[in-house]
Amino acid sequence: MTKFTQKGINFDWGEKEENPFQLIKQKLCSAPILSLPEGSEDFVVYCDASHKGLGSVLMQREKVIAYASRQLKVHEKSYTTHDLELGSVVFALKIWRHYLCGD
């Protein structure tokens, strides 16, 4: 989808695109999918990386608390798989530090 946000790319958004988008949005934000954190313990972070982007999931007691992802920056596209995986861990720790470290 991100290619459609680039300059000069035309994309027509109609009912055919809107209906699945609203369904996905509703499913990702509904109670069985996302939960509020309870306390400050038992957090688990799952991280992954590809040559397109970084992603991670914050969980607590087997419930999803938050998702995060981002595209790779230009200079990161040449990184090794090992470095990308480490980058996804750093990415997750930066955004969820307040949950994981109690800061």
Automatic annotation (TrEMBL):
InterPro entries: DNA/RNA_pol_sf, Rev_trsase/Diguanyl_cyclase, RT_RNaseH_2. GO terms for molecular function: RNA-directed DNA polymerase activity. The keyword Nucleotidyltransferase applies. Pfam families: RT_RNaseH_2. Residues 13-102 form the Reverse transcriptase/retrotransposon-derived protein RNase H-like domain. PANTHER family: ENZYMATIC POLYPROTEIN-RELATED (PTHR34072), RIBONUCLEASE H (PTHR34072:SF52). This is Putative reverse transcriptase domain-containing protein. The lineage of its organism: Eukaryota, Viridiplantae, Streptophyta, Embryophyta, Tracheophyta.
